[in-house]
Protein: Peptidase S54 rhomboid domain-containing protein
Amino acid sequence: MTALGSTTRRDWQPVLTYSLIAVNVIAFAFSAKASGSIEHNMYSREVAELALSEYATATDRWWTAVTSGFLHFGPIHLLVNMFTLYVFGRNIEQALGRARFGAIYALSLLGGSAAVLWFGLENTITVGASGAIFGLIAAELILFLRMKMDPTSLLVLIGVNVVASFTLSGISWLGHAGGFVAGAAVTAGIVYGPELLPRDRRTRKQVEAVGWSCVGVIAAVLVAAIAIRFGTYPDAQVYTLQ
Structure:
């Protein structure tokens, strides 16, 4: 049993973390094969149509809010994100369990997509797991605070990433920010939401129910935000892919 209530065995493995890494690697292999290039793996129509962009939004390709989170611009982009997923994913999956970890990852991905869709869509093509991974970094921070651990090293890492997001070209700071906020909100709902219950009523079942209710509310908000943006974006007739 971990400090936050999830059960682990001696032979426990971060299966979901490894599975997510595998899916990202497979998606990269697909993009490299489709484009005929590892370095310029996004240069194909099949791959570009899975990215988050004005074209995708104007043509109601709502699934790009998800598929874009599994594509990467080149091997370095992939390796950096997968290493970070490996480091933080294992910790959070063990601390909270696979289901909660999966919810944090998925909703952080959607949070990053929602932020880009609403505030940074014009003249951009956005791909990468960074939104989901920033959500995991936020989740780790919330867990540090919940367990009263010193978050200094994590705050330094967050600060470095914030500076990089604003100073390096080609980085979607909106995707990072949206993922971070979503990840923090979901994790806070899971670990702090049950504290709204009276102490004498905090059974395991009720604690889980409150935590998952918080997750459900956040999921509904994100899905609605993405759906509204796709549904209200201007006419697609002026957009073409060459």
User: Anything to note?
Assistant: Confidence is low (pLDDT under 50) at residues 237-242.
